[in-house]
# Entry
Amino acid sequence: KNQVEQSPQSLIILEGKNCTLQCNYTVSPFSNLRWYKQDTGRGPVSLTIMTFSENTKSNGRYTATLDADTKQSSLHITASQLSDSASYICVVPSSNTGKLIFGQGTTLQVKP
Amino acid sequence: ETGVTQSPTHLIKTRGQQVTLRCSSQSGHNTVSWYQQALGQGPQFIFQYYREEENGRGNFPPRFSGLQFPNYSSELNVNALELDDSALYLCASSFLAEAFFGQGTRLTVV
# Structure
């Protein structure tokens, strides 16, 4: 069964600290993995897309890694800011159907 | 700004009523997907349209139906609303590896 699992479910950190979010997937065949940031009550906004051949990709203070062998990805946030408080969702498309398979998300709260 | 617009942004309906949600796609994107997101949960796939044809459906009853128009905009229709239909409804337009979401429609059924 195609699944995407994220951990931790929620996370609280102090402003300025770093954190790492995890995503494990069983979607096959694999084409790409996406990280989205979703503010409460809003639509998800893309942070990064990782393809099979990419190990690391950065977008400002966000760095995503991908290990296609172990089917794991991580999203590292450096020097967190209050505006980073949101849900972070890992998404893997099903190559067969094009349907996006979502993880349940990690809710990050950055405190001053 | 993703180029995907959903309307309305908020809506309150009574149980048993019908509702239509709308989504205008990113230019050039011929695939649109709809998702239901309950509070605190990840989005759940409702269905997908590709060039005006339904191209996949999740575990939602037939009272959830949709349309995609020649300009690739889309509608989600829900009949006989139930309290559990209260959620954020997201539309995503996509082409190949690109997928962009609208801001969502918050539906409350009372």
